[in-house]
Structure formats: C-alpha cells, structure tokens
Amino acid sequence: MKLRRSALVATVALVAAGALNAVPASAGHPERPADLSLRALGQRSDLAIGTAVDMAALDDTTDPQYRKLVAEQFSSVTPENVMKWEVLEPTQGTYNWAPADELIAFTKQNKQRVRGHVLVWQNQLPAWLTDGVNNGTISDDQLRDILHKHITDTVSHFKGKIWQWDVVNEAASDPWDSPSTIHYKGFWTQHLGGGIIADAFRWAHQADPKALLFYNDYNIEAFGDGGPGDKTQFVYNMVKQLKHDGVPIDGVGSQGHLGTQYGDYDALQINDTLNRFTDLGLDVAFTEVDVRSQMTAGVQAGDSNEINPRLQAAAADFSALMQGCLANRRCISFTVWGFTDKHSWVPGWFKDPLEGMATLYDENYQPKRAYNTLKADLIFAGRR
Ligand code: XIL
User: Fold this and answer.
1) pLDDT digit string (tens) for 188-214?
2) What is the pLDDT of residues 280-322, one digit of tens each?
3) Is 35 a member of any domain?
4) Catalytic site includes residue 170
5) Ligand 1, atom 15: closest residue by C-alpha
6) CATH code assigned at 274
7) Catalytic: which of 80, 170, 221, 355?
8) Which ranges in the chain belong to alpha helices (H)?
9) What is the pTM of this model?
10) 293 within some domain
C-alpha cells in the first residue's frame, strides 16, 4: 500500500531545512535545488510534472525555446488537441494518427509519460458524427457502436504508450446550467444515457488493461455544501458508484482551471478534496492547471499596480493546488495546460472580458513568480 504524503502543508518550514541539506553536491559545484527543473524536483516526490503540448508550437522551428522547455521542464505531456476525435478521424473510417504519433516519439526521446486526452467528450467531435446524429442518418444504436469502435481503435493504437487516459471528460453540468441541480450534460449522455460512462471505461480497459483510466472535469477542486448544486459532490457520488459497480476506473482528474478574480481555494481545502477521492481507492491528478486573470486596460498598458497583484494571486493559486497535491501520495501528476503565455488557450477562449497571463512563463519565456513558487513547493516537499 502506498503511504500518503504526511502533513506536508503544515510542516513546510521544518521540511525545508532537511530537504535543502539533502541535495547532493556534484564535484565542486554544489547543485542548488532552485536550479533544477520542475521535472527533476517533481521526481524527488514521485510526482510527474506535465504540460499540454500544442503540436504547431512544438514543430515551429522559429520557436525552438518551446520544444526545449517541454523536454527540459516536464516529465509528462498531454496532447492539447491531437488526440481529440475531430483530429483523429476527420473523415469517417480514415484515421489521422500522425500528429499524436509524433508527440509519442518526442516523449520517448525525452523519457516522458503521456496522458491520453480524450476519449468521450462533447466538444471537438468530427462534423460527420454530429451532423449524422442531427440529420437522423446515425441512430442511437449506431452511435453506441461508433463510440465503442472509436475507443477500441484509439486505445489499441496507443496501447502500452499511454500512462493515464482521460476516458470521460466534463460529463457533469454546472450550477449555472438549467436545471441548476447537477446532472449529466452533453452529447453522449443525452443520446446514450448515463450508463455510457461505465461502458466507456470498460471498453477502454479491454483495449489497454494497463493504462490508468480517469474521469476528468473542471470546477471540482473543492466541495461545496454537498447539496444538489455541488458539482464536486456529484462527481464524487458518480465515481463512488462506478467503483462500487466494479467499473475499471482508476482516477479522477481535476482540471484546475482557476482565475484570480474568483478568490479560489487554499491548500487545505484542495488537499481535503483530494483525500476524499483517494479514500475511495482512486488516484487523483491535476490535469489542466492554469490561473487566468482579467486583462484590464491597466494590465494591457503595463501598469504594475494592476499586474503585480495578479501575478501574486496566480502564484498563490498554483501553489494551493500543488501543496494540496503534494500532501496526498495518490496525487500522481500535476499538469499545466500550456506553460507559456505565448501558447495558451486562455486569450482565445475567454474574450469578454479578455483574460490571459494564465501560465508559468510569460510570452517571452521568462518564468513568472508562479513558476518559482511551484519550485519552492517542490523543494520543500522533496525528501525521498
Ligand atoms: C482546449 C484547447 O486548449 C484549445 O486549443 C481548443 O481550441 C479547445 O480545447 N478542457 C479540456 C481541454 O478538457 O481539452 C480544453 O482544451 C480546455 C478545457
């Protein structure tokens, strides 16, 4: 049985001294922990540090810093888009494995693990599939067979190469949806019912019994009041039932898309939430961490009065997630959804009002306060 990382959050100061002393000195050049990469520091706590990878950026020869940092700083990667259905099978029956295969080859060279993302999700589906359902040429029975085939083909293609699969993504509604009672949402459960979630895990397990299978969602970093509008509670109840039913689910991925305008959570709340999930016998991971801020006129004009508090609040949010994770042995990876503001989904997605500055490095690949804060957390935690 794996031991839980013990009360790290409360004993940071004490541990720090020991951890710093424990760092080996290399011939004449004492190795400062602060000079180590995120991945090297994560390794000291058995924690994989990951990033989503944008293949266009990885392949851009005019932007070599992107590729260099993916290799240097991260021990796990998640394809940001190239394992999504619209990319893998743009025309029915014709697979486009090449971009994802290229990423897998890159990870082999750089000794990295892969989080497969994503098998069952309502977004970024190919038009042939959604159109077919909408115009009635694909019946619900056929849709079920098509999903079964998609999962089997995809998981089989990457068999042995994927550490964790996001099998089902974002199947729970939000409190602002109607009705506000949390319920299954989206294309798949609408057409095939809630039972499709268990089936998806079973099909994925059949195709690669060794891959760890995750349910992944956002806004599940902390429990609310436990009532019908509490999304974390809904997901908790769902995965508890899946475990009870013997469905092969191994973990819960908490995306970790936070924003400095919300106040968000502290490390103890985060850790408490993870503990409740791992008490069910599941692993947990942060899978898509970023902390966005509103790009006010002042921020855009470079006003440090507006920029500094955002940088500090972002660092605090990244740190709360990291400390919460480090204090639970079954939190097995911490993945950021892009590591540089040069390549982040945030400004393209959150436009009104415009949001941004959500990652660890700025647009010129300068590490921000959040990067150093994560490193400090890893240093303080990093006893073998
Ligand atoms: C996002 C990508 O980052 C964008 O490039 C794409 O246009 C849309 O999807 N939750 C998820 C991810 O699970 O797959 C999403 O990724 C971000 C939200």
Assistant:
1) 999 999 999 999 999 999 999 999 999
2) 999 999 999 999 999 999 999 999 999 999 999 999 999 999 9
3) no
4) yes
5) 80
6) 3.20.20.80
7) 170
8) 12-22, 38-43, 55-58, 64-73, 85-88, 98-109, 127-134, 140-157, 187-192, 195-207, 231-244, 267-278, 297-300, 304-326, 346-349, 369-381
9) 0.92
10) yes
